[in-house]
Amino acid sequence: MSTRNCFTGPADHMISCVMAKMDASRYEVTYTPDCVGEFQIDISHDNIPVDDSNPYVARAFDVNKVKICDFPSTIMVDTPAYFIIDATDSGSGNLEIAVSIDDKNIPNYVQNEGGARFRVKFIPDQAGSYFVHIKFNGVDLYGSPFTCNVLSSDFTFENYEYAPINKRSLLLIKPKSNSKFNPNLHIDIVSPSGNCIQGKIEEKSANIYAIQYTPNEIGDHHIMFYTDNDKKCMITKFICQVYDATKIRISDLPAAIP
């Protein structure tokens, strides 16, 4: 009597395995996946499949292929922080995300951007160092936990998360108390293709300022504030998602019932 194991990779290629007898009725089989994807495992005894579940499926993953993009190193308190997790090439699995400060977790929100790309958002409610722990299939990503330094601010920023294409948009800056805003800050507004859009700071009323700009591309626009024109120190960054409502299509509506 003999037991045979066959391991087939995602590209229909065979990989080797080692089978060792543990006792009279148990065997241990070890193998090393050589790529990301599904491996089919055929197990037979005297050329007869062991059960109806044959072949078994093992899903190989590579945590080192998970990419973290646009992670904010410094932001302002009470303003949303965004970053991207790209698990396109890492294989199947589950992501675990935890954002904490002083051992206290705060909520985070995940938006699927298609495929295996995810946008993560969290809003820090106090100044300090926030730690973002990310795991893939229970394994820590390289560099996790990631650190985001949150600075206190006497201002709130409004009307920046969404904007229509080819129309003038306003980002409002309002003081929380008697704070004075420095209108000489340098601002970069960068489109998805990397083009810079002219943004202008204007005082709308007493100590309330607005940034005017007109986006001409659909997608994420990065709005970055620097202390001066040298751009050595970024104060905060926002992401504005620009949309085009004219491209929405409605089809196959059922006929109205009188």
From TrEMBL:
Q: Mind listing the GO biological process terms from this record?
A: actin cytoskeleton organization
Highest taxon of source: Eukaryota
Q: Name one Pfam family in it.
A: Filamin
Q: Does the keyword Disulfide bond apply?
A: no
Zinc as a keyword of this entry, yes or no, is no
Cross-referenced Gene3D superfamilies: Immunoglobulins
Q: Which GO terms describe its molecular function?
A: actin filament binding
Alphabetized, the UniProt keywords read:
Repeat
Q: Which regions does the record annotate with the repeat Filamin?
A: 58-150, 158-242
Q: Which family does it belong to?
A: Belongs to the filamin family.
Q: What's this protein's name?
A: Filamin
